[in-house]
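We emphasize that the prediction below concerns an isolated chain of 302 residues; any contacts that depend on oligomerization or on bound cofactors are therefore not represented. The input was used exactly as deposited, without trimming of termini.
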Amino acid sequence: MKYPFSAIPSRGQLQFPNGAKVALIITANLEYWDLVKDTDKPYYAGGPPILPDLLPGNVPDFPNFTWREYGQRVGIWRLFECFDNAGIPLSCTMNAKTALEIPQIIEAVKERKWEMLAHNYEQGELMTNFADDPVKEEEIIKATLDVYTDAIGKPALGWLSSSLRGTMNTCSIIKKNGLLFYCDLMNDDQPYLIETPNGPIVGIPYSNEINDFTLMTRRGYTNDQFVDVLKCELSELLSESIRANSSRLMNLGLHPHVSGRAYRMPAIREFLDFAKKQDGVWFATREELARWYLDNHDGHIQ
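Result of the prediction step, given as a token string:
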């Protein structure tokens, strides 16, 4: 995997379809955690715990497990209703075990015809565990993609690793297996091409900065602070894109056990209402953006 360094002022201009200035992708991560693992080492569950002092993997950690499970049982359904009412699609990511263990959530996404990305087999199993074992990594990726195809009814086109912790081999493996875009890298406000031994793949950057986990859980932002960050980010990207005559990308990452709490919903609604009122916002899917970029990337990054 490699990509050239490219300072954004030195690039060719990107002009998104229909004069769009910012492609806004709002991601809901539909994740599944095993209650226990076959290990006496601390269990890193693909994200920070709500309570510290991690227990050994073979000991049930009910406070942390059920905190996350709240998102599956309650939070995601609030988010679905909120986005239905706003008329804005979510771009969803799916662990394979979400489809196997909680198919109701996946069926709800399919009913809405929203985008779905492959998001590893289980949230607590990181690709970096297999950084020196590409054969095992490919086994896990293939197993994930097989479940995706069975659950969704068509092959996956995009990949997001658990905790964004891919390896130097992940891009090449997913490209070899027919995927179109990769989302682990968080280094840009525009799409770009990533070279792999199996050919180029489109990088669609994710964000841990514009993310409910970072802002609400790690930093403890209030609703007003959270909404202010989102509005400022979108407004500034719109302004930048006009000044540079070159479109930008904004990704907002949501987790149902964080932003699906009842008291967080007014903040989500306020931002969606704000975004809908802005000229030049494209509520894009990653597939749409990746396909467009493959057709229009010439002259963008040398």
